[in-house]
Specification:
The protein has 3 domains: 66 residues; 101 residues; 151 residues, 2-Layer Sandwich (Heat Shock Protein 90). Helices cover 54% and strands 20% of the residues. The strands form 5 sheets. The chain has a 5-stranded antiparallel sheet with strand order 4-3-7-6-5, covered by helices on one side. The chain has a 5-stranded mixed sheet with strand order 11-13-14-16-15. Strand 3 and strand 4 form a beta hairpin. Helix 7 crosses helix 12. The longest helix has 49 residues. It catalyses: ATP + protein L-histidine = ADP + protein N-phospho-L-histidine. Pfam families: HATPase_c (PF02518), HisKA (PF00512). It comes from Enterococcus columbae DSM 7374 = ATCC 51263.
Length: 446
Amino acid sequence: MKKNIFKQIILKFILSFVLILLINLLIFTICVLNIKNNHSVSERIDTIMNHVSVTNSAITLDEKGQSLLKQKKLWLLAIDNKTGKVQYSYQKPQAIPNQYFYTEVAKFSRYYLNDYPVFTYAKGNYLFVIGFPKNSYARYSNNYLSISMIKKIPFIFLLTILLNCAYFILLYIYSNYRLRKKILPLVKMIMQLPNGLSSSIKPIYGLEEIIQALEQTDNKLKEEQKFRQDWIAGIAHDIKTPLSIVLSNVAIAKDYAHNPELNKYLDPILTETYYIQNVLNDLNIFARLNNQACSLQKENIYILSFIKEVIIQILNQEIWENIDIAFHAEEDLKNVSLQLDPFLFSRVIHNLIYNAILHNPDGCQITISLTKINEKICLTILDDGIGVTNEQLKQLNTLDDQPFDIAFIRTTGIGLYISKKIIQLNNGRMVLSSKYKEFFKVEIFL
């Protein structure tokens, strides 16, 4: 994997570097060729001088030569080698003298004549001077350079820099796109790991070892999740048997003991035993809900009769001496059925009622109502107990947004946490409201 990825990255950057060098070399070559083509002064002078005839009696420039001079805005003069006088001129500017000394000839043959870039050509007994427009060429010693080309050099340089920048920006965008295309699926898989991967990972070239590691991690997490679920289920099953014995013996003792002082000790044992039994059921469900592989066993249940049966089961425990439970339902809901997991939904009702009883040791009135609101079935469980503060209510409403600490199972409300999860899995919504020392209300919309 390392070899493949780094080999690809290094190879691509080497190729990119070579490519940009070739592009720069191409630009440089084009510029040089352009300079060469535009600056062939010697060829132009040779062409013009081919149209100049020198005889003993006169110097003549044919029509073709005159046309070339006019077209290029050039001028021509012939200086006698012996006298230094101008013997012939064509389109000579007025500022150009008609007599020259050897020192003057030596100077302008290398540089300028009255700011005109000039070039010399010896033919016969004459020195021909061909003048170019001012600011057309830059003369330095025996060489020259086009002024227009000199002016273009900064633009060419800037254009080259811009092309290089554009190239590297496009290279960055392309590399980023390719990298994201490869890495994004991996990021999504890593984010899915806590919940378990739902499907096998498609192979990605160059990332085989990472994908293999992700699959191994996913399998290990699923194995640990299954082990945890099986372990909790086994513990719950092992504890339920002695709990059942304790419950039955305490219930028998209460039936035969008519001593109020003794009942004072038996009632808490019975209550806490039921509480432990309920917690074990919740832990079992908690492990099941945290296993993403679990599926709901939904059935079509008549909601009204189902809730009545659950309430009767709770009342039959006969341990709620200070608790009054009242149930109200709209008559037209008698034949209404919903697709729910009956076991899990039963746990929701148990948890919410147990929660009201547990947090009101001095007793309270629990009112359960079933109504229809805006095409939704609403189950309301209201108690007139001590309620909770605004801060506690806020904490309860955000239970599913924060990691659940099993160490504080009795105080943080595992029953509410699990109930909310179950309702969400059944496509419902649970709303909590309370006023301290007045009431606590849970509304479930299905």
